[in-house]
Amino acid sequence: MSGVSTLTTPDKPPVRAWLPTMTALAAIWGCSFLFISVGVRELHPAYLALGRVIAGSLVLLLFLLIRREPLPRSPRIWAHTFVLGAIGSAIPWTLFGYGEERVPSLLAGIWNGITPLVVLPVAVLVFRTEKFTLQRVLGLLVGFAGMMVVLGAWNLHGGADLAGQLYCMAAALFYGIAIPYQKRFIAGSNLSGTALSAGLLLCATVQLAVVAPLVAGHAPPTPWSLSIEVISSVIALGALGSGVAFVLSLRNIRLIGASMSSMVTYLMPIFAIIVGVLVLDEHLTWYQPVGALVVLTGVAVSQGVIRVARSGRKQKIPAEPDTARVP
Asked: What is the rounded average pLDDT of the residues 174-183?
């Protein structure tokens, strides 16, 4: 899960204080799709997700130990973290694994970019933590058009490619549900983001440990039966994508606020495409990057980065929980 702190700083730090961290964060999360693609070569998607949450849990528990910070203690918080562990980690990470068995990793990275577009209608219609404005509605419409372009809605013939894209789209939808749920039920607590995320990953570990053997239909493979590439990918997904990346994200949230930090959403697909092409020799059809640009334009409009509606007074953009999701 991404950061939940709504802390902002009154003074704007220099760009050099946060841009390198944001770039590193986008690179880690963007490259996660590469690691998923490698991992599913030998691991069932559910077992890949299980390995990831175990590795991520260990890293975050180590951070808590170093900082001498406890895990959450409230039963209410643990109940919500159990839900978030499922909809924000266990389910979407498994779905991305299913998706990348069928489509290139760079396409999965593009689909991850729709998350902010899902967050808004869920937050408005379900959790009522946001309100619709003309600016946001226009952004959603532009983003939806971009999604249809990425999907190639005029050229759908079913098959593995369509199924894979739908899996990736469903994963992003779960992210979009998890973010406003997090804001509605947990963001107001006094818990640190590190403690909360460690709790989420622990809950996801329990869930996947029970469900993965049932879904996969067999016991997990022994570590020594896996290639070094797959083992390294699992460790990278957990330790970097779900451990170190979270710490970097929390640092940026505290420096520049959650809304500005969410701009990492625009950089992640770029890294996913670059590593997919250079490392895995993947290819895109012309309409997929074009659709990605339309989607990101819709995200920018909905978040107020691109202004399309004038107002008589200057609008103040509140700091919201980070809308970038760990892929």
From this structure: 84
